[in-house]
From TrEMBL:
GO terms for molecular function: 3'-5' DNA helicase activity; ATP binding; DNA binding; exodeoxyribonuclease V activity; magnesium ion binding. It comes from Microlunatus endophyticus. It comes from the Bacteria. One of its GO terms (cellular component) is cytosol. This is RecBCD enzyme subunit RecB. Residues 817-1149 are annotated as: Nuclease activity, interacts with RecD and RecA. Residues 1-791 are annotated as: DNA-binding and helicase activity, interacts with RecC. It holds the Pfam family UvrD_C. The gene is recB. The C-terminal domain has nuclease activity and interacts with RecD. It interacts with RecA, facilitating its loading onto ssDNA.
Length: 1149
């Protein structure tokens, strides 16, 4: 019995200029149909229609894709702004002109002048506030959501994110394996064959089950006493998962998978879930998800729970390009979403390929289902109807310019067996090199991005694995055709990384063994025979050279080392003279640059550099991190060779496919199977994402036969989709190979070529080889060619005219005022020149960002000596100094005042922090007792007399780090803004009677007034408090100060030394008002794109500078209603707005 899925909404062609989608919409793309264009166009239309940019969210899968999407959306908004501007100008001049050729631009430029003006204002506002838009990878989105949800989320702020948990996986696997089986009284590991479940298999199981933590394991043992290999493998797998989770939590580690699972758990929590979900729905009203076919069940569950049915959700993807199952992507999540969507549209025009190529590929694939009946190749129209690959001056051989060429080795029915792939693959390599050489020599014209002859850079070769790519690249280079392997992994996975590791090891310990090893690297260039015959003098000379290099590295750094070696060993000339030398030299320099940057940033010595490089190599070779791409300036001039997976999303004029005939389909060997279990109790269902399971039971597990059959079906679908991606990368031509081998029957090309043409879309698993493609009549657009059918014509790259070299003149002006600065840097000169009155000392209190006053500074007191009466400060007996300030800041950042016993919490955190400072002369109890009163002191009218203890973590944003552009930032404006302009603004806008009304005079001092405000200003606000008032929330900047404001010779320290008038003087002396204003501007800009309906008058709540030594709890003395120790200031919101504009380079009003 078979159960079919619920009928989905019928797909219809999507009109990008039609009504804007609402509800949940799936847009099914095909290769080359413009997914990114559609997303950017929809985003622009939503914004023009009045949707705030900050309420749009766009998600894609990968950092490079995210960067491209961000660029394309910004370009689209800029194009719309320009088109609307021109349209308004035409209307103003009563000249209708011509409508834009782009249909979306034409649509948005249609309407009366008032309507166009409103759209223009919205688009301009979106461009000005573009940083507020959420364009992120799935994992970045999850991290941000967990951060924003705060206490509503299952999130540990001090947990450490790591991309790779490989070491922990191996540790857990080994420990669980030994614990379970080391003491067993029978042969290890237990009475089952060790080759089936030995240590290697155990690590394999552990890696897979941990990498798929959300996937159920099968087959489940019938009872806990079952003694069988499948049952024991299941128990081992569940034990590994449990231990792995425990150790991650204990070590405060989390991974990408944890982010997803924690966010889903947060949204589904019966207590906090509804509030968390509502917060996300309020935040984002339009959600667009690109590459949705690459999602997984957890990601889809998050989107469905948070947004479906409430926000507009547009899911854009192409299930035919779902090729990342090995990374956890699950195309069945996409198919489930199609079944739940309110509407399904298709993008039905191919903007990439020539019409002839589109038609030929349609002949090959149209109507075919790729692993599931719901994933069908739909017909598409071609935008490029003309041929863009045409004959040049020389006559091209027959068939060479056809859109699809299939080169084959004729089938021999008399052969006893098919040839080995080990013989056939080199034969294809030779034919591929010969064919590319013939094509280049024939000189056909390519009309893609301009006219010109076909060049090596117009050709791509797509393979399955990088090893095969290196083989083909070597063959092409040996024949004189430039070739490069793209995306071959991280540069740290290259041989050059090993050479660097060998060199650094020798520089750290220049012993004979290490020196001999370096001699065989490109840095020295000896051969093995030369090393074997080297005499004592040669080895002594090399040893002296290595020791000299070691001194260069120690005293001058990695960059100087590279230049020294290049000069000493004629490195560039020697390496470039070898085959593939350009790539090798580029890799060596690339790694050298990374080492230099790392050493400089972290002040690392050679030992630390060795550890850093070894870790990068390990990560690269386990493919656990996003790749550090290998670069070469001449890559675009060479034949580009890359994997099919790496080619997704790219396009090339001409594509060669030497491997889509080659697929090995092994028998079931007991490996783990990650499949969708669609058959249960004799009933077969159409699979869904909820059916995903991981079979850990091996060959003898219950239900293994059905799951192995499903695995063959899904694997075959993956291979067909991989072939679809490969075939559709081309703009003008595809060249593929077919060979008769034991790997051919189950290959994608064999299944596509020899399928039944009666209209049935589902393909058989295998098509036996009974003939070759030469017997097929595929119609126009195809050329079926036996290999070796024409002589090889050598191709030589055209010589480039060498012009006379001349020195380049540096004629740019250096902007010496541009810098990255901070509050501390801006005020350093003034602090260093002031002569302070005795009696008031300011501690440095270094924060994460350099925004505190310098060490050992004194604060002048212009009023009187400190009072001798009043309550004693709770911190009177506590030390002074930078270390103490750091500890206090850390405590205030970490405390959750509503977590239970506040005193106990403070004591525990104090103990944690003091553990890093064993020399401190205080106990955790003394420190907690000194800090506790500050949490219980009313904060005064500015905070509705709330205490810090009354404000939950959800309403306290700690350590808000910012970086503000000054006078345009990276694109400096012409206006010269200086700190004196800030003083002028204060003098003009501060009302009379303001406690800081004298501060503009201090900013007028030349050492301060002349400070340029050009570049970037960075800092970190200790905390922002959200105070809930009758008219809504307001936000208050808070800074914690541990300054000693008493007389050092007069003890004890009194709370009344921190009276409001004394605090005002202390604030001005230390230039804290400048810090407070800069922080307020940062908060103003932050709230502009984070607070719905932001109004500075309502939402900017002022500043609280908490001098914690003067805060004594509920009984803290008040003067004019203000508690001692609390400095409150709420300048006019107009001041903050004008200051923000001034810092951005705007002219003063």
């Amino acid at each position: 019995m078979t159960i079919a899925p619920p009928s989905a909404v019928e797909a219809t062609p999507f009109d990008i200029c039609g009504p804007l989608p609402t509800g949940t919409t799936v847009l099914e793309a095909s290769a080359g149909t413009g997914k990114t264009y559609a997303i950017a166009a929809l985003a622009a239309r939503y914004i023009a229609a009045g949707e705030p940019l900050s309420e749009l969210m766009m998600i894609t899968f990968g950092r490079m894709a995210t960067n491209e999407l961000r660029l394309r959306i910004r370009e689209r908004l800029a194009a719309v702004e320009s088109a609307l501007s021109h349209a308004l100008d035409r209307d103003h001049e009563d000249d209708q002109g011509t409508a834009p050729a782009d249909e979306v631009l034409a649509l948005l430029c249609t309407g009366d002048q008032d309507e166009l003006r409103v759209r223009h204002q919205r688009i301009r506002a979106a461009l000005a506030d573009f940083d507020s838009v959420m364009i992120a990878t799935t994992h970045e989105y999850c991290q941000r959501m967990l951060d924003e949800l705060g206490v509503l989320g299952d999130h540990e702020p001090d947990a450490v994110f790591t991309e790779s948990l490989t070491d922990l996986v191996h540790e857990v696997a080994a420990d669980v394996y030994l614990r379970r089986y080391a003491a067993a009284p029978f042969e290890p590991p237990f009475p089952f064959s060790s080759d089936k479940f030995g240590e290697v298999t155990a690590v394999s199981i552990a890696t897979e089950v941990i990498g798929s933590e959300h996937v159920p394991l099968v087959p489940v043992p019938t009872d806990d006493t079952t003694l069988s290999e499948p049952a024991e493998r299941y128990r081992f797998a569940t034990d590994v998962r449990e231990q792995f989770t425990i150790r991650k939590r204990r070590r405060r580690l989390y991974s990408y998978e944890d982010m997803l699972l924690r966010l889903r758990a947060t949204l589904k929590d019966p207590v906090t879930g509804p509030a968390a979900v509502q917060r996300l729905r309020d935040r984002y009203r339009i959600v667009l998800i690109d590459e949705f076919q690459d999602t997984d069940p957890v990601q889809w569950d998050i989107i469905r729970t948070a947004f479906v049915g409430h926000s507009t959700v547009i899911l854009i993807g192409d299930p035919k390009q779902a090729i990342y199952a090995f990374r956890g992507a699950d195309v069945y999540s996409y198919l489930d979403a199609v079944g739940e969507a309110g509407s399904v549209g298709t993008l039905a025009t191919n903007w990439r390929s020539d019409g002839g190529l589109v038609d030929a590929l349609g002949t090959l694939m149209s109507g075919v289902t790729l692993g599931d009946p719901r994933i069908a190749v739909r017909p598409v129209a071609a935008s490029h109807t003309e041929r863009r690959l045409i004959a040049g001056d020389a006559l091209a051989p027959p068939g060479m310019l056809e859109p699809v060429r299939i080169r084959y080795q004729p089938y021999d029915p008399a052969a006893e067996s098919a040839e080995s792939v080990d013989v056939l693959r080199p034969r294809i390599t030779d034919d591929l090199v010969a064919d590319i050489s013939n094509l280049l020599a024939a000189g056909p014209q390519l009309r893609v991005n301009g006219d010109g002859r076909v060049r090596p850079g117009d050709i791509a070769v797509l393979v399955r694995r990088n090893k095969r790519a290196e083989e083909i690249a070597g063959a092409l280079i040996r024949s004189g055709i430039p070739a490069v392997v793209l995306g071959a992994g991280s540069v740290f996975a290259s041989e050059s990384a090993d050479h660097w590791l060998t060199l650094l090891t020798a520089l750290e310990q220049p012993r004979q063994q290490q020196i001999r090893a370096v001699s065989l690297t490109p840095f020295v260039g000896w051969t093995m025979p030369r090393l074997a015959t080297a005499d004592e003098a040669a080895l002594t000379g090399l040893s002296a050279t290595i020791r000299r290099w070691s001194r260069v590295l120690a005293h001058r750094g990695v960059a100087a080392l590279v230049e020294t070696i290049t000069s000493d060993e004629d490195l560039s000339r020697r390496i470039l003279s070898d085959l593939g030398g350009e790539r090798r030299l580029t890799d060596l320099r690339h790694i050298g640059q990374s080492l230099h940057a790392t050493a400089t940033a972290g002040q690392l010595g050679v030992g630390a550099l060795i550890a850093w490089l070894r870790q990068r190599i390990d990560e690269a070779r386990t493919q656990s991190t996003e790749e550090r791409s290998r670069r070469l300036e001449t890559d675009d001039q060479a034949v580009q060779i890359l994997t099919v997976h790496g080619s997704k999303g790219l396009e090339f004029p001409i594509v060669y496919l030497p491997e889509i005939w080659d697929r090995w389909c092994p028998d079931d060997d007991g490996q783990l199977l990650r499949i969708h279990q669609s058959r249960t109790d004799g009933i077969t269902r159409t699979p869904s994402a909820d059916d995903l399971v991981l079979d850990v039971g091996g060959l003898t597990g219950a239900g293994r036969k059905d799951r192995a059959a499903q695995d063959r079906l899904e694997s075959g679908g993956d291979d067909l989709r991989l072939a679809y991606v490969a075939l559709t990368r081309a703009q003008v031509q595809v060249v593929a190979w077919w060979m008769d081998s034991r790997n051919t029957p189950g290959s994608a090309l064999q299944r596509l070529l020899f399928r039944s043409r009666d209209g049935a879309g589902e393909l058989a698993d295998r098509y036996p080889v009974n003939t070759d493609p030469g017997s097929l009549a595929l119609g126009p657009g195809f050329s079926i060619e036996p290999i070796g059918d024409r002589p090889v014509t050598s191709w030589r790259a055209p010589s480039r005219a060498e012009g006379a070299l001349r020195l380049r003149t540096f004629d740019r002006e250096l902007d010496l005022a541009w810098r990255r600065t901070s509050y501390t840097s801006l005020t350093a000169a003034a602090h260093g020149t002031e002569v302070s009155a005795a009696g008031v000392t300011s501690e440095p209190e270094p924060a994460k960002e350099d925004d505190e006053t310098p060490a050992a500074e004194t604060l002048a007191d212009a009023t009187a000596r400190p009072p001798v009466d009043g309550p004693v400060s709770p911190m009177d007996g506590l030390p002074m100094g930078a270390a103490f300030g750091t500890v206090v800041h850390a405590i205030f950042e970490r405390v959750d005042p509503q977590s239970g016993d506040l005193a106990a919490t403070l004591r525990q955190i104090a103990a944690d922090e003091l553990a890093h400072l064993p020399a401190q002369e205080m106990t955790p109890q003394a420190l907690a007792d000194g800090v506790l009163p500050a949490w219980l002191t009313p904060l005064g009218p500015l905070a509705d007399d709330l205490r810090l203890a009354d404000i939950p973590v959800a309403d306290r944003l700690s350590e808000l780090t910012f970086e503000l552009p000054l006078a345009g930032g990276s694109t400096p404006r012409d206006r010269d803004v200086r700190l004196g302009d800030v003083g002028d603004l204060l003098a003009r806008t501060l009302p009379g009677g303001d406690p800081l009304s004298r501060y503009p005079e201090l900013l007028a001092q030349p050492l301060l007034a002349d400070q340029p405000l050009r570049g970037y200003l960075n800092g970190s606000i200790d905390a922002v408090l959200r105070i809930h008032g009758v008219s809504g929330p307001r936000y208050v900047v808070v800074d914690y100060k541990t300054n000693w404001l008493g007389d050092l010779d007069q003890r004890p320290l009194r709370v009344t030394a921190y009276s409001p008038d004394r605090l005002g003087e202390a604030m001005m002396h230390a230039h804290y008002p400048l810090q407070a204003l800069l922080y307020s501007v940062a908060l103003h800009r932050y709230l502009r794109w984070r607070q719905p309906g932001y109004s500075p008058d309502d939402h900017l709540g002022g500043m609280l500078y908490l001098f914690v030594r003067g805060m004594a709890g509920p009984d803290t003395p008040r003067i004019d209603g203000i508690p001692c120790g609390v400095f409150s200031w709420r300048p006019p919101s107009e001041l903050i707005i004008e200051l923000s504009q001034l810092l951005d380079g705007a002219a003063p009003r």
